[in-house]
């Protein structure tokens, strides 16, 4: 729980701070006064101080933040952010700046979130801490997850090499998963070695849920060899060691790691005979598997599964990038993540994805904790992903968000420098506040249902 809380604070704190810092720096650069810089909404907490013209505060409602710009135009956000234009001369007011300057200030937060994601992905690549799973031999597919359009994959022989997907060479299992989850592809063509016929899966990348099921269903031929044992687990109690290769669970033969995991998960709290190979010798031990409640990554349904407490032997290879290569890789990864989020937004609008799948602060917190427990690299990658999510959320044309304010500025430009009347902007911004509040209520409702296992 402590790890989850700390990870949530870091993820949300960093991405919100960076976003608001973008607005702050841009405002300062073009000479707009900034009476307040706040992390959180509502009344300020005692954690506040003033430096120069700006008051820096931590507010009570931790659902975002804001930079209050000097202005004498009151809008629907004034109740949240407070006033702050009276102490500044006219030339320091936001509404008195040229159109380009206001556009820069309003877009700077989104740009900073994108830059943060790019910096994180570039840094991870440059430090040589990016890893790939080099095993590209196909092991099998979980029939309970495999979409019907991909049924032919279940007939691919064990150990067949995947050579290409959509004519792109496959060099690692990471490439396989990236190709499956690519939202821009219209279908997937798998080309195999050993004379196996190609398989075409006719699932458009826009069908995110089906592509995710496919990614979870397929497995590579990773041996069921123990890399580490969790202390206090059934595996530790019965003295399994790193290097042991599990070859049978009960009466069922194990051919690869995912197959072993499936057999264990199907037997919570069960006494099983576990057969393994150690130093070339075969041995069998009877042990009682543990149990845990997990949530289906697609449906969120709670399921009781068996646990052994072992982790696979590391078979990853480090990916080395030159500095220019790391910069390019960071840009590509940022673009790929942004495309995935944009496709999801489009699917929400077209009702291809249910709003019930949206997660709020609690959901983000749970995922932050999982990423933190997985290691620094998964945690940093998750932070970058949330930063991209925040950027795209803020660019939506909802008046109270940055995107809505940018639309106002574009309309002003098209009208030859004549802005919409303050009354019209106030009405639209009030509508935007209502939409945003409804969205907050919806995601919090989704989070609560997931926490109590009702979804």
Structural descriptors:
455 residues, 3 domains, Pdz3 Domain, 43% helix, alpha+beta, 18 strands
Short note summarizing the structure:
This protein is 43% helix and 23% strand.
Tell me about this structure.
- The structure is a single chain.
- Strands 4, 5, 6, 7, 8 and 9 form a 6-stranded antiparallel β-sheet that branches. A 4-stranded antiparallel β-sheet has the order 12-11-13-14, covered by helices on one side. A two-stranded antiparallel ribbon has the order 1-2.
- β15 (290-295) and β16 (302-307) form a beta hairpin.
- The chain has 12 helices and 18 strands.
- It folds into 3 domains: 2-124 and 384-451, no CATH class; 132-220, Pdz3 Domain, CATH 2.30.42; 226-299, PDZ domain (Pdz3 Domain).
- The protein is an alpha+beta fold and 455 residues long.
- α3 crosses α11 (402-414) and α9 runs antiparallel to α10 (376-395).
- The radius of gyration is 26 Å and the shape is elongated.
Distance N to C terminus: 22 Å
* Mean pLDDT, all residues: 87
Helix content: 40-55%
Sheet of most strands: 6 strands, antiparallel
One letter per element, helices H and strands E, the order comes to HEEHHEEEEHEEHEEHEEHEEEEEEHHHHH
Given helix and strand content, the structural type is alpha+beta
Strand content: 15-25%
Q: Which geometry do the CA atoms define?
A: elongated
Radius of gyration: 26 Å
Number of folding domains? 3
Number of helices: 12
Query: How many strands appear in the DSSP assignment?
Result: 18
Spans of at least 5 consecutive residues whose pLDDT stays below 50 are none
